Amino acid sequence: MKRIEKGLHEHHANLQAAEAAKQSLPIPDPQPVERPFEPEVVTEPPFATVNAVENGSPAHEAGLKAGDSVRSFGSANWQNHENLRKVGEIVQRNEGVSSSKERSTPFTNSAS
């Protein structure tokens, strides 16, 4: 029993000595971490919400879904859409254009 007691005392003394030595070491100043430059992504606020999408329509082919928020549509965005009049003009200019590569109406959307 005395051997166990002596072993426990030595063990705890060693732990205390190790902790004291650890605390007495100087803490190095953290070095600044260099991170690669990442440009800030500015997301325009949405100016319209899609109510419905007809199957087979250009909007459907482009992946729009009901509830999507429209951030830009061609040259129209939240600053210049003029109560969606500009969106109508862009759609009219592209009526009958069937290839998505030929359309000049790129849009940016996000799910709500």
Can you lay out the helices and strands and say which pair or pack?
Elements: H1 2-24, E1 48-49, H2 58-61, E2 68-73, E3 76-77, H3 85-93, E4 107-111
What does this structure look like?
The protein is α+β, with helices and mostly antiparallel strands. The chain has a domain at 48-111. 32% of the residues lie in helices and 13% in strands. The protein is built from three helices and four strands, in the order αβαββαβ. Strands 1, 2, 3 and 4 form a four-stranded antiparallel beta sheet that branches. A hairpin with a 2-residue loop joins strand 2 (68-73) and strand 3. The chain is elongated and about 95 Å long. The termini are far apart. The model is unreliable at 101-105 (pLDDT under 50).
Question: Which descriptors apply to this entry?
Answer:
single chain; 112 residues; alpha+beta; four-stranded antiparallel β-sheet; 13% strand; elongated
The major pleated sheet works out as: 4 strands, antiparallel
Query: Structural class, please?
Result: alpha+beta
Q: What fraction of residues sit in β-strands?
A: 5-15%
For the record, give the distance between the C-alpha atoms at the N and C termini, rounded to a whole number. Answer: 71 Å
Concise description?
The chain has 112 residues and is of the alpha+beta class. The protein has 3 helices and 4 strands; from the N terminus they run H-E-H-E-E-H-E.
